[in-house]
Amino acid sequence: xxxxxxxxxxxxxxxxxxxxxxxxxxxxxxxxxxxxxxxxxxxxxxxxxxxxxxxxxxxxxxxxxxxxxxxxxxxxxxxxxxxxxxxxxxxxxxxxxxxxxxxxxxxxxxxxxxxxxxxxxxxxxxxxxxxxxxxxxxxxxxxxxxxxxxxxxxxxxxxxxxxxxxxxxxxxxxxxxxxxxxxxxxxxxxxxxxxxxxxxxxxxxxxxxxxxxxxxxxxxxxxxxxxxx
Length: 229
Prior knowledge:
about 230 residues; mainly alpha; 8 helices; globular
């Protein structure tokens, strides 16, 4: 994949096409959400019905992993899912590339998930109770817990980047070989893959957050199991 083109400079910072595309997606989603929620009614029209269906589906998915916490996690997990999905789908528009095909973007999202995991964990368990699970079942395992945190964050970034980049490269190669004979099936493949990758990233983020919020419960469960054993 070709390097991102530099559009302009902001002081010492180079603003590339990836940055502009990312800002564009955020701005478009912000405006859409603002405009579509200005006049909510008890007798919803088609647009409100669709939006309520999307929100309900996301709430159900969160509740299935972490019962009773859907309202707390909906803004974060829901935004992740929708933002990544829209960004992935940009690749089907001629002349545009998905921001997720850039490692710096996926790394930023993975870092956001990393910080959010600990934020929700501390908020749910308290600082001492949350940090205690890093010393379980033995303080000797602390370095391994820390390495696990870093490696899974890196894997989260690389997985999304690699899949989207390879998808766009494969699409380009097929178009070069088959020309106009392949657009429809290729388009369907891109839509399916974009949806799947957005779902996987959001679900992994949800699982990591759920694990942090239930860290003390898991620790107590393991201690009870050891005691019974």
